[in-house]
Amino acid sequence: MESKKKTQEEICQVFRFEQWLRFYFVEERDDKLFLNVPGERLEEIKTSYPHLLELANMANGGEIDYQKSCDMVCAYVGAHIDGPKSSTALVTNILDSKGYQIEMYLFGLWIKGHEDFLDEDIRPFSEWEELYAGWRATEQVADYAKKLMESSPTATPAGGNNTLH
Fold it and tell me: Contact 34/61 with Cβ under 8 angstroms?
């Protein structure tokens, strides 16, 4: 069980990191979106999250859209977690699990509920991780996550009407 929980957290971190990249470093040129992570931010990533540097470099400087973003994250998870660290069955099981879906849903709620604050300045990924973990650990969010886990599989909210601050 601990292995599954650790692997799920690793996968969730990859998705959170990719969201952070797109939140701050996407720019529009000629009606297309490009990911442009400045050198000093790449150095911060290299120092604080060396295991995620390759993911940042995969798309940096290139055109990005939803499909490319999904492909990039899946390729990264496949190369670095699915196989090298965990069994393919475990990763597939996690990606299909209710717990993973809820965790990603909660992260989306956190971004939506804190977007103005996050947008005030480019905050390091380490700060995002710390802020999200603090929010996620609050009693209100923990209770909400528990209710979602106990609900039927189709009861996980898809909309963003229940923002928790």
Answer: yes
Per-run averaged pLDDT (10 residues), the chain, 165 residues: 83 96 96 96 97 94 93 90 73 91 97 97 97 98 95 54 44
The pLDDT assigned to 10 comes to 95
Question: What are the residue ranges of helices labelled H in the chain?
Answer: 2-25, 39-48, 53-59, 66-80, 88-95, 98-119, 125-136, 139-150
Q: Is 146 helix (H, G, I), strand (E, B) or coil?
A: helix
Give the pair of three-digit tokens for residue 129.
Answer: 């991780």
Q: Please check whether residue 110 is in contact with residue 132, taking contact to mean a CB–CB distance below 8 angstroms.
A: yes
Ordered by start, the domain boundaries in the chain are 2-155
